[in-house]
């Protein structure tokens, strides 16, 4: 039985010295109707990463593997460069070999769209969680403070199984992790405010509640993300 190829994900990665790489992964159904996944190429792409250069790199990979006529879908992040790249890929391929003459070739990466949605929401409410971010940053800045934080948690008989984690603004799941852990140690922050004069960013009760509500929303998005990863869903 003829194997059908589907190329679902192409991504640029940033490595050391800010060099850009393209990872090309192919998903296909084999003769036993089993989903297979293979990394076809992990290649350095010189800057600038224009649509022309990306399209040429990808098409060369497809032709090297002789699968340019078996292509079904290309899944990419949702950005204008990739939109332009798809148009250039179509110019290099035989459209009659593609589904509906290539009209369904471009599939936007679901996880990336999910990330854009959540990031947009976090921009709106960022001021509401700023004190929690500052509090986590204060008590995790140096080992001595972090040790004092854990000692205080034990004194209050709060199980300290997870360390404070400051988020990365461009990764919403790290913000979810930060809020989830911080709200668990709310009483520790309050107790320490009474004993550390340098600590001046204790969240108010309304800010704690707001952070808890935000955390519940992010939990849902995180569960969706984990479902996509678990089931290897790219679109």
What does this structure look like?
With 235 residues, the chain is an alpha+beta fold. Helices cover 48% and strands 16% of the residues. The chain is built from 8 helices and 5 strands. The protein has helices at 51-64, 80-92, 110-125, 130-139, 143-155, 172-184, 186-193, 205-230; strands at 4-14, 20-29, 35-44, 74-76, 106-108. The strands form 2 sheets. A 3-stranded antiparallel sheet has the order 1-2-3, with helices on one face. Strands 4-5 form a two-stranded parallel sheet. The longest helix has 26 residues, at 205-230. The radius of gyration is 24 Å and the shape is elongated. The two termini are 26 Å apart. The model is unreliable at 1-16 (pLDDT under 50).
Task: Explain the layout of strands and helices.
Elements lengths: L3 E11 L5 E10 L5 E10 L6 H14 L9 E3 L3 H13 L13 E3 L1 H16 L4 H10 L3 H13 L16 H13 L1 H8 L11 H26 L5
Parallel strand pairs: 4-5
Antiparallel strand pairs: 1-2, 2-3
Helix pairs in contact: 1-2, 6-8
Question: What distinguishing features does this structure have?
Answer:
5 strands; 48% helix; two-stranded parallel sheet; alpha+beta; three-stranded antiparallel sheet; elongated; 235 residues
Which whole number gives the mean pLDDT? Answer: 83
Q: State the assembly state of the protein chains.
A: single chain
The beta-strand count equals 5
The main sheet comes to:
3 strands, antiparallel
- Broad structural category: alpha+beta
Determine the N-to-C terminus distance. Answer: 26 Å
Shape: elongated
Put simply, the count of helices is 8
DSSP strand content? 15-25%
Unreliable parts: 1-16
Order of helices and strands: EEEHEHEHHHHHH
- The percentage helix is 40-55%
Enumerate the strands of the largest sheet in spatial order, edge to edge or round the barrel. Answer: 1-2-3
Radius of gyration, CA atoms, in whole angstroms: 24 Å
């Amino acid at each position: 039985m003829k194997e059908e190829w589907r190329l679902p994900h192409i991504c640029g990665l940033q490595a050391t010295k800010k060099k850009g790489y393209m990872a090309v992964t192919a998903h296909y159904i084999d003769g036993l109707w089993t989903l297979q996944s293979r990394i076809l190429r992990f290649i350095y792409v010189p800057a600038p990463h224009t649509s022309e250069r990306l399209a040429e790199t990808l098409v060369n990979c497809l032709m090297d593997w002789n699968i340019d006529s078996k292509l079904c879908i290309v899944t990419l992040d949702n950005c204008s460069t990739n939109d332009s790249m798809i148009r250039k890929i179509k110019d290099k391929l035989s459209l009659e070999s593609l589904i509906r003459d290539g009209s369904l070739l471009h599939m936007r990466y679901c996880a990336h769209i999910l990330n854009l949605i959540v990031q947009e929401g976090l921009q709106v409410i960022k001021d509401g969680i700023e004190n929690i971010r500052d509090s986590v940053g204060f008590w995790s800045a140096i080992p001595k403070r972090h040790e004092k934080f854990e000692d205080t948690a034990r004194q209050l008989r709060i199980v300290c199984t997870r360390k404070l984690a400051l988020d990365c603004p461009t990764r919403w799941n790290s913000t979810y992790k930060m809020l989830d852990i911080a709200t668990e140690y709310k009483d520790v922050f309050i107790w320490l405010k009474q004993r550390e004069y340098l600590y001046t960013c204790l969240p108010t009760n309304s800010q704690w509640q707001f952070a808890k509500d935000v955390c519940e929303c992010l939990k849902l998005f995180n569960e969706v993300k984990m479902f996509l990863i678990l089931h290897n869903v790219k679109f």
